[in-house]
Specification:
- This protein is an alpha+beta fold.
- Helices cover 30% and strands 33% of the residues.
- The chain has 9 helices and 10 strands.
- The longest helix has 15 residues, at 8-22.
- The two termini are 44 Å apart.
- 21% of the residues are buried.
Length: 239
């Protein structure tokens, strides 16, 4: 390749991309600093910063103020093609698992409103941490009507390691989901500890309502996704 005809910032970009693709640089690795690259390539600080800016914008690197620049961790891409997030991860080649945090019976007026039932309705609460390649990528909280899935029945999840495989044993079959996406800071320190993030961490927050074939609500769930691992892709086609 005739490097003399290529802008020097692009040469730095391509060399770093090649190191990432060949595995020389792994997700989370710190890349060479500005002063080192200035000396190595014989360029100005502006050139190095432009290369870093392009690499950050294209998702190859992330900058941490006061610490340095690092290879970005691979994100789980949600294509909205499956009701099960776990199934989508498996399709992308990830090894999935979960840590079940708590299963309990609760009464929650807010959740009752979400599911359109009386305020004194009992729910089965299930919280868990989603793992992908042993990384903590999400904290899920699911609510089911206690009359459809009680606390003891829900403990089958320890065996199935899958929420939807577990509820299928009790003839609960999701057919349709409605999801709402937003950015929300995590203020609950318990959730922060489970995801290994600091308080007020800005997570990708998803509210989900799951329906069966008769359009009855069978689950209401809230999920805090670690934004460093998660993105969503939506394809739109004009008819």
């Amino acid at each position: 390749m005739a490097y003399s005809r290529i802008p020097k910032y692009e040469i730095i970009e391509q060399d770093i991309i090649n190191d990432i693709r060949t595995g020389k640089l792994q997700p989370g690795d710190k890349v060479s600093g500005e002063s080192q690259l200035k000396k190595e390539y014989g360029v100005s600080a502006i050139t190095v910063r432009k290369a870093f800016g392009e690499l950050i914008n294209n998702g190859y690197l992330v900058g941490v103020q006061g610490t340095g620049t690092f290879v970005a961790k691979k994100q789980m891409i949600r294509g909205l093609t499956s009701i099960s997030f776990s199934d989508e991860l498996k399709q992308q080649g990830y090894k999935t698992d979960m840590n079940v945090i708590e299963i309990k019976t609760v009464m929650d007026e807010r959740i009752a409103g979400k599911m359109g039932v009386p305020s004194d309705t009992l729910f089965t609460y299930i919280s868990r941490v989603r793992l992908a390649n042993n990384e903590k990528v999400a904290f899920h909280i699911s609510y089911f009507l206690n009359s459809q899935l009680n606390e003891e029945q829900a403990k089958l999840i320890y065996k199935t390691r899958s929420l939807y495989e577990m509820i299928a044993q009790y003839h609960l079959y999701p057919v349709l989901v409605n999801e709402n996406y937003s950015v929300k800071e995590i203020t609950d320190t318990k959730i922060c500890r489970q995801l290994d993030v600091k308080k007020n961490y800005p997570s990708f927050f998803v509210k989900r309502t799951t329906f069966d074939g008769n359009n009855n609500i069978i689950e209401y769930a809230e999920t805090y996704f670690n934004k460093d691992f998660y993105s969503t892709t939506v394809n739109i086609r004009k008819d």
